[in-house]
Amino acid sequence: MTVINTYEEYQALNLVTLEAGDILLKKVFPETRKGAVEWGITQGQRMFSSNKTVKTGGIFSREKFKVAFNGSNSTEHAAVAIAPGELAEAVGEGVITASVESRKHERYCVYRCSNTGLRDAALVMAKGLSHAYHNQVTGAKDRVTTGGAYSVKGALASNVRGRTFQQGGTSDYLTAIIDYVQGVRNDRPNMFCSEFAAAVYEAGSLAAFGKTAFGLNPRAMSPMVLEDALNNRPDIMTLVGKYDSENDPIFTAVCKGLEQYGKKWHFNKSKQSTAAKEVLHNLLLIGDNDYLLAALEAYLGIKSTRPCPVTCTIPDTSKLKPDSSLYAALKTALIPTGFFVFR
Fold first, then answer.
1. What pTM was estimated for this model as a whole?
2. Extents of the domains making up the chain
């Protein structure tokens, strides 16, 4: 069993290309931590690490096996790859789809399912739980649904719940997911990130094979516990490597530009520079390159050479002036990336 606890262990993994069905576990280390939320999740999990061993059921290869819940508290988030360049994840807005490109500066351990039937069944669930994706693919534009929000309470309670499959509670929960995806009902359960990743595999297995794959309770799967559950089923899931782009040019350039701006002594910081600096800093913490790109276009009055799926609209009076220190620092850092056209 391989548990990635340190930044050095993570760096030693091979870079891989994502495939549909891969489970992505986001890693946050002291060297890479960007904000209070990441710190809170990783530190909170540390309190619940356990050496207990339990028995649980499963469908593939072994009906009973032992699981020691010793995942790493460096595991902060989970997502599922659903198509080339696209992933599904449970975030603040609920279960959404996002481009892999917008997550390039994050660090993920990649787990791959060796059973193609199980993988395909899980993908049906993952795509179906995303309201926008489901409507786009099925053409069900008029379908009205309820629920499906991010479950903050569920995430907080996950570490104290029973981690094994239970007839009644867990089976009813998985059946509700299957019924939603198949259009039998229109209410989705509220979910948190690692619950979603575990649930699509358990619900998919139940729908396709009549039995769960891991024998787990998805609502008890904190990111740390999910990592351990995946590591303990090498007959189904394998840690194949990492996915990241630590040298993502735009993300790195903005960090450099803001750092250089911060090193200068400013006698009279403009309102525009102060506001733009705060927006860009927050986008770095959130970690979405699409919005970062849009904000750069808006505040600098420039166009990127790559497609941007979102827009950032600001008053003309909020744009940075070319002679401002922040504009100059960002321009110097961004020109080498080749992704922007400056006047």
1. 0.69
2. 7-243, 249-341
